[in-house]
Amino acid sequence: MSDVLVLAEHHNSEIKKITLELVTGARALGNPVVLWLGGGCTEDTVATLGNYGATKVLVADSDAVNNHPVAPGAEIVASLIDSLTPVAVLVASTADGKEVAARAAIKSNCGIITDAVEIAADSTVTQSVFGGSTVVHSRVTKGTPIITVRPNAIPATPQPFAAVREDISVDISAGAQRVTVKDRTVVAKGARPELTEAEVVVSGGRGVGGPEGFSVIESLADSLNAAVGASRAATDAGWYPHQFQVGQTGKTVSPQLYIANGISGAIQHRAGMQTSKVVVVVNKDPEAPIFELADYGVVGDLFTVVPQLSEEITKRK
Ligand SMILES: Cc1cc2nc3c(=O)[nH]c(=O)nc-3n(C[C@H](O)[C@H](O)[C@H](O)COP(=O)(O)OP(=O)(O)OC[C@H]3O[C@@H](n4cnc5c(N)ncnc54)[C@H](O)[C@@H]3O)c2cc1C
Question: Taking a C-beta distance cutoff of 8 angstroms, is the pair 214, 204 a contact?
Answer without folding.
Answer: yes
